[in-house]
Design a protein that fits this description.
Number of strands of chain A: 52
Largest interface: A-B, 58 and 54 residues
Low-confidence stretches of chain A: 1-21, 495-502
Distance between the termini of chain B: 63 Å
Shape of chain B: elongated
Number of strands of chain B: 9
Oligomer: heterodimer
CATH topology of chain B: Chitobiase, domain 2
Strand order of the largest sheet of chain A: 34-33-32-31-30-44-43-42
Largest sheet of chain A: 8 strands, antiparallel
Structural class of chain B: alpha/beta
Number of helices of chain B: 5
Mean pLDDT of chain B: 85
Mean pLDDT of chain A: 82
Strand content of chain A: 35-45%
Chain lengths: 741, 196
């Protein structure tokens, strides 16, 4: 009998339901081999396999690979939100981003706990493991690393993340002393080329050969390896070969390009010397660390470091740039020169050419995408717009009663909002003037009339003096502002420095709940007061087309003339944003944005996955790794393996577990009893070794029969669908070729 | 009050027996201390919250040399240009072929995890290449070949990368597991320092 092995099983997983039937049905394949959506089985390979069976194993492996990734097509309900793998804090502004306020600030030292991309673990050096960890030190000074809304350029009252040079420092910290037996005293005069200390900065390998001073570290970088006449050390498209060498003395080196053409050399380089060569317009260096000839390989060898930078002392200065960057500098914080000890740090500091002022959404990115720090957005996207604009010809009534006293066709200021309930209990307010009186009115949506706010009162010549309203986003926001309207007269005249008449203004102030900060608006009559003439309202305190004090607001604790700032939305200290006017012009309209909560800025540290717009159908992929070492030889099987579901590849002649089942009467054929005909066999056996677990045997008489069994399993969704039997014989991968047994 | 003296009489045989017991206990304690101080083998890692198990000890696998460099190996496998990955092997006979099967079943599913993590989706070519010889195999940037070299054809445990062909060379069965695991460590960017 030529019993053959191998089969493949498919495992495109979906959400799975436990099988409760008495006997496993092949129609439920591959569900019965999985648990919680992941493969829960070992594949036991028999002790012998023809070449074709190994070929079949590739099929099997590829199908197993599909187990590791479940793809589901789903409707896209909307945009996918941005995600941050790391730490995200709502930081107050203006102020320091990092500090001890764990609620509102990033930690001063960001570690693995805060962002798993920062590693902690062990590095092996000469047979001993040494602990290390990575951290990022953030400066706590608000002007060094903070949020600002100051007036001056380039901030101009917008929110920016300010980053001064040297205020973000990545540190690779040694958590143990390196044994002095192996790391004695390695300085510039005696670098340790034989056993450099390997570490990864931002995931990129370096090899420390010396610590010349407490602020210096000397490291190899680039590609470090051993070249011989056949095997090069590669850097990019270039390869260094060693064609000749003398032990511990010199090597003859040649550089080839990607096509194999020699582009430099042969060049004899003395040990410890560096060969500098320009390749494709770029400067490369080849440092010969050691030259030797091996009797074992009968070849010459050269241990070299090859790249644009190979052996360098880094001191945090302008020449100590991290490879491939222009603004990250490598340095060191070493306890004792020449040593590597507990709490010694290899540092990489952010050193932009000038102080950075990053807008919301921009990032400081570490090399190799190791992490980023970014002010993402405000802590709320709910803002109510409150608009202030002059109006004319407005009539307001004392009440809804017919014929009630009224103020006919007055001029004044309209204050409105796009979010109902924001201005007190009103959506629209008027401050109205005629030549004899002033009144505050509101729009009544029921009567569709403008009604006096002081019900039953009459407009007075003295005006209303002062009136305050709550300013709360939709009436439900978490933060309450006060809108205060002041005027000293009903006979609104010209501005204070105007030639147009009586000095009088209409003053609007928006405070926070502590009556601090906020925004101040002044309106005036652009013409002199005259009996019988309604005032003409304009923004400002003078008749000039653009007043420096049209709009003022508190920025970083100081009142500033926002009207002179010509960029963007100005964010005041209270969180009120001045959206309009944007330019220092003859504007009369002001729009403020009122946030729903006390305004902060979300600052992220870690890896940020951008939000994705969604449309139509999305493919959602779920990673469900094959968590076991899925393949074992039958000779390696233990009781622990038998406690799981098993796929036994091979029949009783080649797989001892199948032979055991046959001997126990759980499999129909022994080795000598295999039928003398050509067929593939797929059989599920319940409780074969462990109660509740399933064994699936896949075998064939010949290699061709094995292939048939493979094909049947590969097309399980059509060929085995609805199959209630627990075993089938297959002579072809068609419905007609499959027989339940 | 005078000091009291205690005299213990031991026969020569008892003294020898006592010494043997002391030496045995000391040896046992020293051995236990030595054993407990040895680094424990690592057979599994947690990657993004998922446990992934390996056949070999990753501490040993980490020491498998890669020529010319691990960076080159990573580049060959994981560069965005890779579209197809092909397995190649030279048949080793019915009794030895199962070791190819084992490595293939390890290699492809876990390499797929590495590709999933980086967003790459190359295909694994089916069928694989059956070799007569490992000499003069070459491929392209787009289609790297992973050539499995059975211990009967190799005298080293190493990974050699050349001309877009990645040779997993093992001189024994354990070495076969280790070179496979080493390739996966590089592809999955596993840092031994992270493993517990």
């Amino acid at each position: 009998m030529k019993e053959k092995l191998i089969a493949s099983f498919l495992a495109a997983l979906t959400m799975l339901t436990p099988i409760v039937s008495a006997a496993t049905q092949l129609g439920n394949y591959p569900t019965f081999l999985t648990k919680v959506g992941a493969l829960d089985a070992y594949v036991v390979v028999g002790a012998a396999a023809a070449t074709d069976d190994v070929v079949g194993a590739v099929n099997l492996a590829v199908r197993l690979a599909e187990v590791s990734k479940t793809s589901t097509t789903v409707s896209c309900p909307g945009a996918v939100a941005e995600t941050v793998d790391g730490t995200l804090k709502e930081v107050k502004y203006p102020g320091a981003i990092a500090g001890t306020d764990t609620t509102n600030q990033l930690p001063i030292e960001v570690k693995t706990f805060h962002f798993s991309g920062l590693k902690r673990g062990e590095v092996s050096y000469r047979g001993t493991d040494y602990s290390y960890y990575e951290l990022v030190k953030l400066d706590t000074g608000s002007t060094n690393f903070g949020l600002t809304n100051k007036k001056g350029a380039p901030v101009n009252g917008t929110i920016r993340m300010v980053v001064q040079t040297g205020k973000i420092v990545y540190k690779w910290r040694l958590a143990e002393n390196i044994s002095s037996t192996y790391w004695g005293n390695f300085t510039d005069a005696s670098p340790n080329y034989d056993y450099p200390f390997k570490l990864k900065l931002f995931g990129q390998e370096f090899q420390i050969v010396a610590t010349p001073a407490i602020t210096q570290v000397r490291m190899l970088s680039g590609a470090v390896g051993t070249a011989d006449p056949d095997s090069p050390v590669k850097s990019g498209d270039y390869s260094v070969y060693c064609t000749d060498a003398a032990d511990n003395s010199w090597a003859s080196l040649t550089i080839k390009d990607a096509t194999g053409a020699i582009v430099a050399g042969p060049q004899v380089v003395s040990q410890a010397d560096t060969w500098e060569v320009t390749l494709g317009g770029t400067g490369y260096k080849v440092k010969l660390l050691r030259a030797y000839a091996s009797t074992a390989t009968a070849k010459v060898h050269a241990k070299v470091a090859f790249g644009t930078e190979v052996d360098k002392t880094y001191d945090g200065g302008s020449e100590s740039l991290f490879p491939g960057t222009t603004d990250w500098r490598i340095g060191a914080e070493i306890t004792a020169a020449g040593k590597l000890q507990l709490n010694d740090n290899i540092t990489v500091s952010y050193y932009p050419s000038e102080t950075k002022y990053l807008k919301l959404g921009e990032s400081v990115k570490a090399p190799n995408g190791y992490f980023e720090i970014s002010p993402r957005d405000y802590n709320t996207d709910q803002f109510a717009e409150v608009t202030f604009e002059p109006v004319t010809g407005v009539t307001a009534y004392a009440s809804t009663a017919t014929g009630a006293a009224s103020m006919l066709s007055a001029n004044g200021l309209m204050i409105s909002t796009d979010i109902s309930g924001t201005i007190g209990t009103y959506d629209k307010l008027y401050v109205l003037f005629n030549d004899t009186a002033a009144v505050i009115a509101y729009y009544d949506p029921t009567s569709k009339k403008n009604l006096w706010d002081c019900s039953g009162c009459a407009p007075t010549e003295a005006g209303f003096k002062s009136k305050a309203f709550d300013l709360i986003y939709g009436g439900v926001g978490e933060v309450t502002y006060k809108l205060v309207i002041d005027t000293n007269t009903s006979k609104l005249g010209g501005g204070t420095s105007s030639s147009s008449g009586t000095a009088s203004i209409l003053n609007i102030t928006v405070y926070n709940s502590s009556m601090l900060g906020g925004v101040d608006l002044d309106f005036m009559n652009s013409t002199a007061y005259a009996a019988g003439v309604n005032p003409s309202i304009k923004l400002g305190t003078t008749d000039a087309t653009a007043d420096a004090k049209d709009v003022t607001g508190d920025l970083e604790g100081a009142t500033q003339d926002i009207g002179t700032m010509s960029v963007g939305d100005v964010v005041t200290d209270t969180g009120i944003i001045v959206k309009v006017p944007k330019t220092y012009a003859d504007a009369n309209k002001v729009i403020l944005e009122v946030p729903a909560k006390s305004l902060k800025v979300k600052v992220a540290f870690g890896k940020i996955t951008a939000a994705a717009a969604a449309a139509g159908q999305c493919v959602q992929e779920t990673l469900t790794p094959v968590t076991s070492a899925v393949a074992v030889l039958d000779s390696e099987v233990t009781a622990a393996h038998k406690a799981k579901n098993l796929v036994l590849v091979g029949g009783p002649c080649k797989n001892t577990l199948v032979a055991d089942l046959a001997a126990a009467g759980k499999f129909p054929y022994t080795c000598v009893g295999w039928p003398g005909r050509d067929f593939g066999l797929i059989k599920a056996i319940d409780d074969a070794f462990t109660t509740g677990e399933v064994v699936l045997v896949v075998a064939g008489t010949r290699a061709a029969d094995t292939r048939v069994a493979c094909s049947v399993l590969q097309q399980y969704d059509t060929l085995l669908a609805g199959q209630t039997a627990s075993a089938v014989e297959a002579t072809s991968a068609t419905a007609a070729g499959i027989t339940a047994v | 009050m005078g000091k009291r003296e205690i005299k213990i009489k031991l026969t020569r045989n008892n003294l020898i027996l006592f010494g043997i017991v002391i030496i045995a206990i000391s040896s046992f304690l020293i051995y236990n201390f030595y054993i407990s101080s040895l680094p424990k083998p690592i057979h599994s890692v947690t990657l993004n919250g998922q446990v992934i198990n390996f056949r070999g000890d990753l501490r040993k696998a980490d020491r498998i040399p890669v020529y010319p460099s691990e960076e080159q190996l990573y580049l060959e496998l994981m560069r965005p240009l890779v579209q197809n990955v092909t397995i190649a092997f030279k048949p080793a006979g019915e009794k030895e072929n199962p070791y190819y099967t084992i490595q293939i079943l390890e290699l492809i599913p876990k390499l797929s995890i590495a590709y999933s993590r980086t967003g790459l989706e190359p295909n694994f070519d089916v069928p694989p290449i059956i070799l007569d010889s490992y000499e003069n195999i070459t491929s392209t940037t787009y289609s790297p070949i992973i050539a499995l070299v059975h211990p009967i054809y190799s005298d080293e445990n190493a990974i050699r990368v050349k001309d877009h062909v990645i040779c997993l060379k093992a001189k024994d069965y354990e070495g076969f597991d280790l070179v496979t695991d080493k390739l996966l460590m590089v592809a999955l960017e596993l840092d031994l320092g992270q493993m517990h």
